[in-house]
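[job 0417] fold request received: Glycosyl transferase group 1
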Amino acid sequence: MRIGVLRDEGIVNSLYRAVIPMETLAARGHDVRWDGKTTRAFNVRMLESCDVVYVHRFWDPDGQKLVRHLRSQGVAVWWDNDDDISAVPRESVMYKKSGGVRGAAIVAGMKRMMGLADLVTTPSEVLAERYRAYDLAPVRVIENYLPDHFPNAAARRSAGDTVTIGWTAGLEHGLDLEKLGLRPVLQRLLDVDERVRVVGTGLQLDLRGDRYRHIRGVQLSELAAHNATYDIGIAPLADIAMNRARSDIKVKEYAAGGVPWLASPVGPYRDLGEKQGGRLVPDDRWAEELTRLVDDARARRKLAKRAGKWGKSSTISENVSVWEDGLRTAVSLAGRR
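[job 0417] inference complete; emitting C-alpha cells
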C-alpha cells in the first residue's frame, strides 16, 4: 500500500506516532512517502498519489484544505493526535503556546480535521472516549510502541551499593515536580543516604550536591542505553486532566532497559504494576516507596526481570499489525463515502 505521511518534524512525539511505525511499515513492503512539513508547502502531487495519507496532529486551515482536496481525489485520510491540548493548565510551560483562547482555536481545528478524516487514532483511551463523543469519525486506540533496538540496550547498573534514581522527562513535567513535592523528597534521599545518586534528564530538578547530575537531553537513538544506567526509573504524574490523557511510553522506555520503575497511579499507569516491572506510588508515599526500593536489591532484580520481559513485548515489530489494520480500515471506510 502507498502511504503518505504528514508530520511536523519539530514535534518530538511524531517519532512515536509517525516515524517509528511508518519506517516499520516500509520495512514490511509498504511504499511510504514522507512530507515532513515545517514551513514548506505541502507536496500535494505526491500525497494525492497515495492510497492513504496519515496526518499527525495537523489541524490548521491549510491542513484542512489539503485534506478536503485529498478526499476529493479518493485518498483515504487517517488523522492522529496524542496530546490533550484542551487541558493544558495555566501553570504549564506549554500554556502560552497551547492554552486559553489559542487552545480553544486548536480544539476547534482538531474537530474540523476529525470530521474530514476516515479514521482517527490516539494512544490514549481518555482521548479516544472524548473523540468518540464528538461523533465525527471512527476512533480507535493505538498505543505507542518502542523502537526495536530498545530491549537490546545493555544494562549498565551502578557499581557496589550505589543506587541511581533517574527521571527522564520533558520540561512540562516541572508541574508534576512541584505539585507532588518531589524536590524535597529527592533532596532528603541524597542528604541521608550516601548510596543514592539522582539523574534528571531533560527536566532540571535543581538538587544540591555532587551526587545529583542534570543532563539537558538525549536523542531517541541513545535513550535506551541512557535509561539502562538507572537502577530505578521514576514517572511521577500529578492527577490533572492533561496527565490522564498521556500514554504509557515513559515506563515502557524504562522497562525495555530492564529498569524497575515507580509511577503515579494516574492515567496511562493506573492499570500497570509489578507484572510490568514497577510499582504505583500514591502522591504522599514517594519518600517511603523510593526508600523501600533503594533498600531492597532483591526486589529491584525481580522487577527488572519482569520489566525487561514487558519491554520486549512492547516493540513496534511485535505490534505492527495494529498499524496495518489501521491502514486497511482507513481505506475501507474511504471506499464507503
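[job 0417] notes: The chain has two domains: 2-145+316-334, 150-312. The longest helix spans residues 316-334.
[job 0417] exit 0
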